[in-house]
Amino acid sequence: MIAAQAKLVYHLNKYYNEKCQSRKAAISKTIREVCKVVSDVLKEVEVQEPRFISSLSEMENRFEGLEVISPTEFEVVLYLNQMGVFNFVDDGSLPGCAVLKLSDGRKRSMSLWVEFITASGYLSARKIRSRFQTLVAQAVDKCSYRDVVKMVADTSEVKLRIRDRYVVQITPAFKCTGIWPRSAAHWPLPHIPWPGPNRVAEVKAEGFNLLSKECYSLNGKQSSAESDAWVLQFAEAENRLLLGGCRKKCLSVLKTLRDRHLELPGQPLNNYHMKTLVSYECEKHPRESDWDENCLGDRLNGILLQLISCLQCRRCPHYFLPNLDLFQGKPHSALENAAKQTWRLAREILTNPKSLEKL
């Protein structure tokens, strides 16, 4: 048993050093190329409308606010200034979303975003995004990369296609620190010792973002109130949770396996599903020793089996907002197909670790 476990860990480490690292290097190169173009577009936007200031900056070899969705798909979060005169309201009526309401009607004219406030005093995510989309479309025509970048049509999101190879979504957002959403108040679960009080404090201090984008749970039934709502996102808090042990290595292996074998019709799985399942695995295995390097094989198998279970049940709850299903709107046939493919992959890795050389 120990020998089999050691063999799997050996092959996983080899896989990580070869396949995962070359994936990382390729994506880093793409990110540099993509960020050059996006920065140029955002510079043009800022000239037209100084309220949309580019917050895309490089820190310690990573770009602040950039999320990798897949090797050809990225999201750049554009942080907006001055949320000050609004109250953050998440009463659970819109899973995964919240609204920003004027704290006092008399303060309307004091807001930097006055023309995007609805009659009932909400700051409309949709109105801000619509204005931003118009500005980006104009900037794309003017920027120095206009030959290689174009807007993706037929969507209310702001998406650019670069060199016909990459798609980047630019999402206006507010950063919220010093508060924690009521819809995530159940976390951390009281009976689970992970992640421990110090890490919990760090995670909550990271706060969350409010994004102006289409909400998962609202597809197909957007009333005006819903389209004014902002989507909750916890990227920095989630990254903070996965520090220590082989957690990040495990996620890197999962992402690489996904890119190479689970990029399927209907796009049932993305990197975020993998990140979510690693967080759940941390709860199931709360001791730091469970995440020693020699446990990498066990943790990976556990996550792949959990992924199969989620695909078969057609439900993958968001880690901080379990009422939000990350498989919402995915075709059932695509989820079934992904379950079969994941099962093949898991069986292959478990019964023949050497197969990782070809995966």
TrEMBL record:
Subcellular location: Nucleus
A single GO BP: cornea development in camera-type eye
Organism domain of life: Eukaryota
Residues annotated as domain Mab-21-like nucleotidyltransferase: 63-243
UniProt keyword Magnesium present: yes
UniProt-listed Gene3D superfamilies: 1.10.1410.40, 3.30.460.90
GO molecular function, one term: nucleotide binding
Residue ranges constituting the Mab-21-like HhH/H2TH-like domain according to the UniProt record: 246-343
Gene name of the record: MAB21L1
InterPro entries given in the database record: Mab-21-like_nuc_Trfase, Mab-21_HhH/H2TH-like, MAB21L/cGLR
GO CC, one annotated term: nucleus
Subunit annotation: Monomer. Homodecamer; composed of 2 back to back homopentamers. The protein may exist as monomer in solution and oiligomerizes upon ligand binding.
Name of this protein: Putative nucleotidyltransferase MAB21L1
Organism: Myripristis murdjan
Family to which this protein belongs: Belongs to the mab-21 family.
Organismal lineage: Eukaryota, Metazoa, Chordata, Craniata, Vertebrata
Keyword list, A-Z: Developmental protein, Magnesium, Metal-binding, Nucleotide-binding, Nucleotidyltransferase, Nucleus, Transferase
